[in-house]
Every structure is written in structure tokens, then in C-alpha cells.
Hints:
The protein has about 400 residues and is an alpha/beta fold. It has one domain (about 20-210, about 265-409): 3-Layer(aba) Sandwich (Rossmann fold). The protein has eleven helices and twelve strands. The strands form two sheets. The chain has a ten-stranded mixed beta sheet, with helices on both faces. The longest helix has 21 residues, at about 370-390. The chain is globular and about 50 Å long. It is an enzyme of class 3 (hydrolase). Keywords: Hydrolase. It comes from Amycolatopsis silviterrae. Belongs to the type-B carboxylesterase/lipase family. This is Carboxylic ester hydrolase.
Amino acid sequence: MPERQPVTAHPPSGPDGVLRFPGVRYGTAERFQPPRPAAHSSDSMRPGPICPQLGSRLEAAMGPPREEPPQSEDCLYLAVATPALTGARPVLVWLHGGGFLSGGGTLPWYDGGRLAADGDVVVVSVNYRLGVFGYLVHEGVSEGNLGLADQTLALEWVRDNIAAFGGDPGNVTVFGQSAGALSTLALASKPESRPLFQRAIVQSSPDPAIIQKREKALEIGRYFADTLGEDPVTASVEQLLSAQRSTLRWNAAKDPTSTRPPFGLVDLDVRLSDPLPDLMIGYTTQECSAFAIGVQDAEIRQAIVDQTEPLFGRPSRALAQQYGGAAYSYEFAWTPEHGGYGAIHCLELPFLLGTRESWRDSPMLGDTSWADVERLGAQMRLWWTEFARSGSPGTQPSFRITHALENTP
């Protein structure tokens, strides 16, 4: 076990009383190589850089990220939000979404201060490698799933270091959304990562059946390499992102209705093994409407919208049922009274994470005031943090989130 990294800086607490460490290095990695533990932690007061990436396909719904950290291949950083450096609080580790192509745990959207303050918990938000940097599969270059290896290393960092931030390494909940939710299921299925956490909150995971088979991933990798025309190991970041963009277009042209990411988890069998983590799992009522924003062809647009139930709803309920009634399941059905796009993919995020400024003018919130977001958000943060504390959010096993809680028998 590596030596515990001391906390070398003590930031002033914010107006919410929370201490924030937004740029803690947890690992290093050469391009297309497995990650290694960091020799020391910087405890930087600046957000750690996020993985190089193209723009998000959900920017029309979420809005552009504000005060985005710099992008760098040296991106294995995490952010910690804690009420105090003493004590032993429940720990929630956040794995962001973005289709394995975009996003970052150190983005302002995912500031964990509200969760930390409301629930007296420690929140850790993780950057991991994305796109070709984290999920390329190409013979002699990369075997894939490097982003998942990064997440495992971050959980090992939490095990070894979170006590210094006031957290309990024996009470860790991984919670993720979209690609981060599917990653959470994968981590719960792997023997090396399963012992690193006790609970899991799975928000809007796509059907695990979308995980690529190796043969298909190799086909995508070959197209990428041919398009790149350079050695992927030595090509510039700009060249890699340009070839990634071309590969995304090629892949989308084959099926314009598909929401399967061309770069993502490969050759993994999601089987939640004993001992099972405590589980809370759910989805938003109109997930796939987010992916249809701006699609001009009415037939393609409707085909995308219609994937909510087979891609998100049905698999979510099926995974909950695997627990024999021991899991908590939810449906997020809240919608803005005016504007927005319905209860779409990502809509629950402003109620849990981020700040008023980071979500300002987010299109998916319509004209909803921040006071209205906070009214429901305070209750949701209580459910999430109570689940992290005890394994129960304090609701019925199945519940529906609208403008108020609805329990389902």
C-alpha cells in the first residue's frame, strides 16, 4: 500500500463552510499506458486539468461549461469537498458522464459543495481519460478500458488518503451518471475494484449491452489509425482529436439513430457479484430526448426519442430486480414549468452538484429559478447522502421524483 499522502494546503472554507481541494493529483500515465499512483499530491487550489476532448454532444441541453479547466493528457486529478479535515464521514465518489468522450470531474458543474454541506459527507469528483486517450483499442497500441483503470486507481487513492480529508475509507459510495453510471456497474463487476466501495448510485446508465465487443472495437480502432495516418503514440493531441472527430462522423453515418459511443468500455461482462453493493438506480423519464435536440429529420429524431425505454428504463428496472427487491429504484420525472426539453438525460444533475453560477442559463432548466431548483435539490441531496450513510435513502424501495416525492408500491 502506498504511503498516505499528507494534506499540504488548507484552503479557506467557502460561504457554505466547505473546504475545497479542486486539483489533487491521484495518478500519472504515459499515453496509452496503464495509470500509476502519484508520487505525491499537489493539493492545488486550481482545478485539475481535464482530458483533451471535443465539444459535448449535449451542450445544447446542458449549456457550455463555465470556467472550464485546461485540457491536458496529464489529467489524473480529482477534486475533494469536505466539511472538515477531522472526523470519519461517508464518502461519495463522483464519476461524470459524457459518453466516454467529454466531461471532467473538476468541471464547475460537478462541484460537490452542496452535497458535502447538506449531508455532512466528503465528495470526491474524478477526472479520467476519455475518447481515444482512454478507450482506443488498437493492436500494439492500446488494449482499451484505460479510463476504467484510472477510476480504479482513484478509488485506491480514496482508500489510502481520504481519512486525511475527514472521510471514512470504510464507507464509500460510488455514484455516476450516464457513462459514469455504466462505469460504476463495471467497477462493481470487477474483482479488483469491487472491494473498494460499499454502495453504488447508478444514474441513467445505458443498457450494459452497449459495451463493445473487442472485434468491433478493433474495427473502430483500425479506422481511427488509418484516418490519423501517424503513429498514435507520437502524434500530437490535435491530430488525435481530429482523427477522433472523423471516426465519430464515420461511425454515426452508419446509423444516425445510434447513441452507442464508438469509444468506450470494451469486452466487459457486467455481473454484480457477491458481496453485492447497496444499490440505488434510476433514470429520467425522457432520457433520449436530449440526444434528439437539433436533429432535423423527423423520423430519425423520433427513433432516437423512442430509445428511452429500451436503452435506459427497462435495463434500470431489470438491474434493480436482480437484487430481489433489495435495491432502491427511482424515476426522475421533474420538468420545468416553462421551457426546457422535458425530463431529459442529465436534468437531475443541477439538483445534486454544481453551483448556481455553473448552471446559470442552462437550456434544460428552462426558466426555472434557482430557488425552485434548490427546493427539490435539498430533498434529493438528503436522499443521496442518507443512502451513502446507511444504505437507505429513507424512501420506499421504488420512488418517483417530480415536484414532490411520489412513492410507488
